[in-house]
Amino acid sequence: MESYYEKHESFIDSLFDDFLTQDLPVNLCKILPCDLNTVLSLSIQSRIKGDGSHRQLSSTIKFNIGKSLSQVPTHHCKFIIIERLPSGVFVDPFELEHLLHRAVFSDVAVFGDTNLELPSVLSNFSVVEVHKDIGLNILSHNKNLLDFTVDLPLHSRYPRLDESGYVEVRLKAPDLFLQCSIQEKPLNRSCLFKLETDDEEADLTWSIPAGKRSDAGIVSVVTFVSALVSVLCIVFSTQVRQPKF
């Protein structure tokens, strides 16, 4: 993701798709099959857990080697998960740093709009890149190897006004990659593959409570009256407690 933002100032789906297909050295490793999807079986199920404005984006990944690659030299692989987050939600980089220190992920980073205070109408897309180690020489085995869950803390931004009382935020299925470091002489080689899931993953929808424009007048009056009463109470309390000489 860092190389994408070196070329583009903001995240746009079409530009990112072009970046994946044209700029990244994907599926170019001569030691491994040019398309690992022919020997791997991969499925992912995502859901949003929790209540309120602070939730978790939970993705369960099941990874199976359909045909072992015994000729592959010693290698160490990791999953790379790219989550594209629309303007209505964000991930707190400080929370991710805490998870990284606890070794929940091997690496994690947030790109794009990381201003946590902006409302959704003033914010832009952000992208989370998660790295998860999956072990040594996994491609040389022929068995079910992985069944793990990645939980990302997700927060909603202040949404725009909507007469329905809710604003829907749609989260697309993540992009999945497999990166393997292969030990060769005289130098090690790193291979990157884009993975395809066995089933079509539907978008997730999060309905976020929003204020109604028709209620704006009532809210303004109540806020003004509350503020005025508070000021009068403070002034009265100050006068009553003022010492007499």
Automatic annotation (TrEMBL):
Instruction: State which residue ranges cross the membrane.
Output: 216-236
Q: Which GO terms describe its biological process?
A: GPI anchor biosynthetic process
UniProt keyword terms in alphabetical order: Endoplasmic reticulum, Glycoprotein, GPI-anchor biosynthesis, Membrane, Transmembrane, Transmembrane helix
**Top-level taxonomic group:** Eukaryota
Entry annotated with the keyword Endoplasmic reticulum: yes
Q: How does it sit in the membrane?
A: Single-pass membrane protein
Q: Does the keyword Chaperone apply?
A: no
The Gene Ontology CC terms held by the record are: endoplasmic reticulum membrane
Its localization reads: Endoplasmic reticulum membrane
Under SMART domains, the record lists: PIG-X
| Major site of localization recorded for this protein | endoplasmic reticulum
What InterPro entries has UniProt attached to this entry?
PIG-X/PBN1 (IPR013233), PIGX (IPR040039)
The pathway entry for this protein reads as:
Glycolipid biosynthesis; glycosylphosphatidylinositol-anchor biosynthesis
Cited PANTHER family: PHOSPHATIDYLINOSITOL-GLYCAN BIOSYNTHESIS CLASS X PROTEIN (PTHR28650:SF1)
Query: What family does this belong to?
Result: Belongs to the PIGX family.
- This one is known as Uncharacterized protein LOC103486129 isoform X2
